[in-house]
């Protein structure tokens, strides 16, 4: 008599694991005039390992010779397993209070926050959210800057674990935003050249689709894409001040980019496939005239590497 024996389905022995990467700081830059001083990253904190955890830094009452100052800065980075999908969540937060730049740009509180969620399987490319990001009482020359935000600018996680650099929905949104700035009347020449170049690059990525990118470096990573959470800035009643999307051009001061996101790729030694990162900077300034130099305020960055 034949005996039938049920055999269990083969159990996969593949182990999935993840390296967390996150960084945040509240202020950095290089002031060249009226003084020449490099601004080292303030309250900088990093996470770069497989264990995850939670780390914080603080900096209070910082003043760069009275020209640039803030009353309180706090940064946090963390990485942990997700209870929702058994994947990996990485969070990076930068909080800056009492910001004052040459008495022209001031803010009671700005928060830059980025979180990525890598699913356990098919989790090389994460879902990203900027929930928690905020600008409280941001002012230009004492006048309120009213911002319209789009926290969903990066959209949903691309289908099929496709790269954001090949996701048509994300690329079309960035193209529309970039095109409005590039084609705006009155855009200064330097910014016009920058945004014409950005627009050409986005169009090239859209045309390429899933084809390999010829602009990829030796390691396979491509040039970053830039976009912004800020869709528009309300009118500011100061003569000559103009808004172009998320960019303010202030005569005798310089240009200010708000809520700017850099979406880029980084290749780690243990993987041949590039890993996407998201870096959010609440305020980027290029100063001219009454002060010269550049400065960033409220920077948070996350990415991670899932294996295999």
Description:
This protein is globular. It contains two helices and 19 strands. 11% of the residues lie in helices and 49% in strands. Helix 1 runs antiparallel to helix 2 (189-208). It has one domain (19-307). The protein has helices at 168-182, 189-208, and strands at 17-33, 37-42, 45-49, 53-64, 68-81, 88-101, 105-118, 127-129, 134-136, 139-140, 143-144, 147-149, 225-228, 230-233, 242-244, 247-250, 254-266, 275-287, 292-307. It starts with 16 loop residues before the first strand and ends with a strand. The strands form three sheets. Strands 1, 2, 3, 13, 15, 16, 17, 18 and 19 form a nine-stranded antiparallel sheet that branches. A hairpin with a 3-residue loop joins strand 1 and strand 2. The chain is mostly beta strands.
């Amino acid at each position: 008599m034949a005996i039938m024996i049920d055999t269990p389905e083969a159990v996969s022995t593949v182990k999935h694991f993840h390296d967390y990467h996150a960084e945040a700081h509240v202020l950095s830059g290089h002031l060249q005039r009226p003084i020449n001083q490099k601004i080292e990253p303030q309250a900088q904190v990093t996470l770069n390992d497989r264990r995850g955890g939670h780390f914080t830094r603080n900096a209070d009452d910082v003043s760069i010779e009275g020209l640039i100052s803030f009353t309180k800065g706090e940064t946090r980075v963390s990485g942990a397993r997700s209870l929702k999908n058994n994947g990996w969540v990485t969070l990076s937060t930068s909080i800056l209070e009492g910001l004052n730049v040459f008495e022209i740009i001031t803010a009671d509180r700005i928060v830059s926050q980025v979180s990525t969620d890598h699913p356990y399987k098919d989790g090389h490319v994460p879902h990203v959210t900027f929930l928690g990001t905020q600008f409280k009482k941001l002012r230009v020359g004492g006048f309120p800057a009213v911002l319209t935000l789009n926290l969903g600018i990066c959209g949903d996680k691309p289908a099929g674990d496709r790269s954001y650099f090949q996701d048509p929905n994300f690329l079309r949104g960035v193209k529309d935003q970039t095109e409005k700035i590039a084609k705006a009347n009155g855009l200064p020449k330097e910014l016009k050249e920058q945004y014409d170049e950005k627009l050409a690059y986005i169009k090239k990525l859209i045309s390429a689709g899933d084809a390999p990118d010829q602009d990829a470096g030796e390691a396979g990573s491509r040039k970053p894409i830039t976009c912004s959470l800020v869709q528009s800035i309300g009118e500011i009643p100061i003569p000559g001040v103009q808004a172009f999307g998320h960019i303010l051009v202030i005569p005798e001061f310089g240009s200010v980019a708000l809520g700017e996101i850099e979406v880029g790729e980084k290749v780690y030694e243990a993987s041949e496939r590039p890993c996407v990162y998201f870096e959010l900077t609440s305020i980027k300034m290029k100063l001219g005239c009454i002060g010269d130099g550049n400065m960033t305020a409220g920077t948070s960055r996350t990415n991670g590497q899932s294996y295999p």
